[in-house]
Amino acid sequence: MKAKPEEITTPEQRAVMLDQMDRAVQSFYTMAVQIQNHPFIEFAGVMGEYVKVCREAHRQGFDFTNAHAHSGHALPIQPFQAAYLGEKIGCIFGPALQLARNGRPFLEALELPVPKGFDVAFPDLDAPDGAVVDGYHRVGDRWEPFRAP
């Protein structure tokens, strides 16, 4: 990650953006509650936390509009905020991301290392008996190292 990003918006512009972002999150939350789909409501938590992180960055004189994967600049996020975001994404997508076929590309898209043995720890639950995935084969409800006959 790169150091503090260059400013592409003024502090005054960012202050207006933050107020607009707050209103957008509140509107989304109101509509999501009416829809009554709990995982969908969780997106309001993700968006709200993003606004909190941006507000703190702004308070520190940091242009949050230029902190993203494409610029290489990181928002000044705290570990407890990362955990909160993980909990929200876990609520929304957790069981699906625990399947190796989804978890591996998810981690790779985040440019995070895929832990050794990930496919064994989180095997595809619907893989047929005898399936071979990354050097392991399914035997009933467990995965074992595969050795070709």
Helix and strand arrangement:
Elements: H1 11-35, H2 38-59, H3 79-97, H4 100-109, H5 118-121, E1 132-133, E2 136-139, E3 142-145
Describe it for me?
With 149 residues, the protein is mainly alpha-helical. The chain has 2 domains: 77 residues; 52 residues, no CATH class. The protein is 54% helix and 7% strand. It has a 3-stranded antiparallel sheet, with no helix packed on it. The longest helix has 25 residues. It starts with 10 loop residues before the first helix and ends with a strand. The model has no long low-confidence stretch (mean pLDDT 85).
Give a brief outline of the structure.
With 149 residues, the chain is mainly alpha-helical. Helix content is 54%, strand content 7%. The protein has five helices and three strands.
